[in-house]
Amino acid sequence: MTEAREAIQALMNEYCFRLDAGDMAGCARLFEHGTWRVLGDPRGGEPGAEAMMETLKHVILYDGKPLTKHAMTNVQIDLGPGDNHATAQCYITVFQAVPPGFPLQPIFSGHYRDVFEQVGGEWRFTKRDISPDLLGDLSRHRADMA
Q: CATH number for the 2-145 domain, one of 3.90.1150.10, 3.40.30.10, 3.10.450.50, 1.10.10.10?
């Protein structure tokens, strides 16, 4: 069970690492077999990497990176019956700084609720719901929110 939790935590981390690195295609591939949606946003929730890329096209990049850091806290992973399904939840805070005029600040704080499955020995996302609890200035992060 520890190995499963470590693999799921690594997958959750990979999402953040890829977004912060500007690897939008890599991030989208994490949802090849799953859905990603922001609760309350009518545009999300379609399955697959292509749908995820459609959402990520609105992220503003500065020399290839969004200049963000996604920080997950209070991570809780629960394994389901049979050890091939799991759920997880955590808080997420996104920080951004765009020098010189946008100093480091939190721009988003919310809650990730995830569902995973293990197929062929590999864990993958089947669902990520994002609850946007506290919003800051997203104008330098997403073109559709400027």
A: 3.10.450.50
